[in-house]
Automatic annotation (TrEMBL):
Pfam families: adh_short
GO molecular function, one term: oxidoreductase activity
SUPFAM superfamilies: NAD(P)-binding Rossmann-fold domains (SSF51735)
Record protein name field: Retinol dehydrogenase 14
Organism: Wallemia ichthyophaga (strain EXF-994 / CBS 113033)
UniProt key word Oxidoreductase: yes
Signal peptide limits: none
Keyword Membrane: no
Keywords of the record: Oxidoreductase
InterPro entries attached to this UniProt entry: NAD(P)-bd_dom_sf, SDR_fam
Length: 327
């Protein structure tokens, strides 16, 4: 019904309205590589007024920023540090943004692209004591939105999450369990490795769909559009775990296959760029969109009671004032 693209042999999406980015201020979190860098590259060449690249690693971020500046030397491209696994880092980013001059605060599009799979026990907990995948893929993003919400006040403000079709491999309990680390399944640690890392990742992406649907309900009166999309099977660095030791033996086959058969980051970014550029009246808010920008029904995201339970738990774990998200 809401199909925007047709599947073709080249797996390409060609109807992005690049002119829609002209003169806008865009933040992209997770911008130093892969899909995030591809998004930044596209909007930079589309006449944006200002591009802010949010990255955890400043070294990698600066290398990515230099790439953009080389192609677009006259564009204002800022690099800001943010670590979604640390609520203090997220808060610092938000405070820095809101302390700018009034005419620099307005955000037109917020791309929330950062995400991870954490197969190593030593990195399975965030700085705030949360399970790392849950913290980075859901909580850090929600906390950031709470800090930036007053600045998402343009006539066309949008929040666009990078999701994953991995959500289809899991389901959520009807109520969040009492585990303080996560309302999702917790890590199973064997000899220093998280053997259910992919299952936790899938859980986080299903929860993201639930959160997006509820977030749209609560932000509707602010005229902010919210959506989440699946980029497809993309050849990125998310499965490159050589620095995690034995985990490399598990992820290498997938990484190798993706290097030959996966989508390019630019192809993976395309549905997100479409959602950022298509007129909002053509895009039902709060929906999950597949890699061809077709809406897919996420059954648990349609359960209003389940949505509220999990959203409230996420707000609690993000340590933000619940009143921020009261419709």
């Amino acid at each position: 019904m809401f199909s925007a693209f047709e599947k073709d042999s080249n797996k390409k999406i060609n109807n992005i309205n690049s002119n829609a980015f002209r003169g806008k201020t865009i933040i992209c979190i997770g911008a130093n590589a892969g899909i995030g860098l591809a998004m930044c590259d596209h909007v930079a060449q589309s006449g944006v007024k200002r591009l802010v690249m949010g990255c955890r690693s400043m070294d990698k971020g600066e290398a990515a920023r230099s790439e953009i500046k080389e192609r677009c030397p006259d564009l204002v491209v800022d690099l800001w540090q943010i670590d979604l696994s640390s609520l203090n880092s997220v808060r610092s980013f938000g405070q820095r943004w809101t302390e700018q001059a009034e005419d620099a605060r307005t955000i037109d599009t917020l791309f929330l692209n950062a995400g991870l799979i954490s197969p190593n026990t030593a990195s399975s907990s965030s700085a705030d004591g949360l399970e790392m995948t849950y913290a980075c893929n859901v909580i850090g993003h929600l906390a950031l939105i709470s800090h930036l919400l007053p600045c998402l006040n343009s006539t066309d403000s949008r929040i666009i999450f990078t999701g994953s079709g991995a959500y289809m491999f899991t389901s959520l309990p009807s109520r969040p369990p009492p585990n303080k680390r996560t309302p999702l399944r917790d890590s199973w640690n064997v000899y220093g490795y998280v053997i259910n890392a992919f299952a936790i990742y899938a859980d986080s992406k299903l929860l993201l769909n639930v959160v997006v649907k509820e977030l749209q309900q609560r932000l509707a009166d602010k005229h902010i559009w919210v959506g989440v999309y699946h980029p497809g099977a993309v050849n990125t660095t998310i499965t490159d775990k050589a620095h995690y030791g034995v985990s490399w033996l598990i992820t290498y086959p997938f990484t190798y296959i993706m290097s030959y058969f996966g989508r390019t980051p630019a192809e993976g970014a395309a549905p997100g760029l479409h959602l950022a550029s298509e007129p909002k009246e053509n895009l039902p808010g709060g929906a999950y969109w597949n890699e061809y920008a077709q809406i897919e029904l996420v059954k648990q995201a349609e359960d209003a009671e389940l949505r509220k339970r999990y959203f409230d738990r996420c707000v609690e774990d993000a340590r933000v004032d619940p009143a921020v998200f009261v419709a």
